[in-house]
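agent: user wants the full assembly modeled, not chains individually. Plan: 1) parse entity lines 2) check alphabet per entity 3) run joint structure prediction 4) return tokens. Steps 1-2 passed, two entities, 628 residues total. Proceeding.
--- entities ---
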Amino acid sequence: MYVAKCKQGESFSEGKIIPYGDISISPCSGILKYGQGLFEGLKAHRTEDGRITLFRPDQNALRMQTGADRLCMIPPSVEQFVEAVKQTVPPPGEGALYIRPLLIGSGAVLGMASAPEYTFLIYVSPVGNYHKASSGLNLKVDHKYRRAHTGGAGGVKSCTNYSPVLKSLLEAKSLGFSDVLFLDAATGRNIEELCTCNIFIVKGNIVSTPPTLGTILPGITRKSISELARDFGYEVQERDVSVEELLEAEEVFCTGTAMVVKAVETVTFHDKKIKYMTGEGAMSTKLHLMLTNIQMGVVEDTKGWIVEMDGLLK
Amino acid sequence: MYVAKCKQGESFSEGKIIPYGDISISPCSGILKYGQGLFEGLKAHRTEDGRITLFRPDQNALRMQTGADRLCMIPPSVEQFVEAVKQTVPPPGEGALYIRPLLIGSGAVLGMASAPEYTFLIYVSPVGNYHKASSGLNLKVDHKYRRAHTGGAGGVKSCTNYSPVLKSLLEAKSLGFSDVLFLDAATGRNIEELCTCNIFIVKGNIVSTPPTLGTILPGITRKSISELARDFGYEVQERDVSVEELLEAEEVFCTGTAMVVKAVETVTFHDKKIKYMTGEGAMSTKLHLMLTNIQMGVVEDTKGWIVEMDGLLK
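--- prediction returned ---
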């Protein structure tokens, strides 16, 4: 794994690669006490012709910077971030990888303050299929818990957005659902996102997804899929999407780094269970194929999304 | 410091006292990634006649249990919690202490799940004056950030409630304020609490404080002060308190373990700066004296709030 440290008031200098293992941290650190922690997730792909590529790592770097500003932390620069990611990816032949950058307030704080030291760390793990269901997702609309509120930190990839919705996820999984769909905290009338991915609804030629105004994570796959959908001739609208619209949609799908694009098979809202189009003819299938083809080098990347591992660092 | 570990599906057994120092934790742990962390704060007092006492430690233990349930963690039992606290308090003669229990998801998680291992840890530090201002607090009502929402985790002492409001606190401090007063996320019309303490307003014989319905931390000092205020003949109302009422109050004060009771000298709402009664004649002064007298053993504890260190564990 890659580890770099930085004191408050300074900036990150070059980190180093050390064997993966436990890290040593103050019991009084900003992360343990006040939740000063951000993470990222991105994938390294092996292309058809054997090259190793990263998908839009600069976007993850920028999102970490936005998050660091929101939680009063010091982030690495975009260049440092991308170089550090490259250093953690093993040479071709060792399989597909999920890359997990982490930025934590590692310095000890007593009263409420931003930590005096930050640790930027990256570790990697083999990619599994995040949602085990091989067919579409079966979602439950949550009527009790809310993920985020305006004026909160729901729009950054902060650790604080996850433990508060774990109970909702575990309850839904125990009932056989794949994941939970959260409604907005202000009105409870609009859909927001799942625990770990964004959502889109399709009706006719219009693809709609909730706007990223601070309560929804600005997914990099979400952004990429919006662009590809436009390329396919769909009209993509970023706007409030009501539960009523969700229930009347023809197709619903989710996006995230781990799953790429995944069709939603059913949504359960109170006692109502709605079934949506999935499979061969579905737009989600088309978008999933297009994006994975770009990531795997089957289709040419005309958008500059692919960063090739230059191998110089190995 | 005291450290105990517990695997998912088991319960905490006896921990041990080790020298204070960094702890070793997986980069992949539930706390670092998903913010699965709770903390508590309580004080050990030296009474006038030299005994060492704890103030309502069972209440902290119960609050940690509520929080653990909310974040899908395993908590220690009330008895374990209180015994562990006793073990961390040094013998008489070493001064007043702030005791910091911590419960973290220390086991490694890959996808979103509750951690497979939990660490319960307690460390202590000498008590300082949390808010440096020796006179009353100067608060700024925040119009941008919100601390918590209904359906979130604002009602438990989770690390996830702190880093998202750090920016607000630092901005207010840079403008010379002592702390920030947050409004409710749903309407922005009612007051909730500060970054680290609860709030009360006084008008005539009525003392009002926002209700603990999931967005406000159920402070142990808050609860104790409500009871003492009733003993003094005030009517204590737990209900929504609007900004208008705050601006028209005669007296405003805050409660927390570190500060006990502290008068609010001014509240700044947009361009309006309201001044409140503080000093000798203020209710907050009377309540502060009463509670510290109970804690210090000057006044007899008729409520069973004081737990004496029996010394057997030393």
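agent: reporting back. The helical segments of chain A are 30-34, 57-70, 78-88, 163-174, 220-231, 243-248, 283-295. Residues 129-133 of chain A have pLDDT under 50 and may be disordered.
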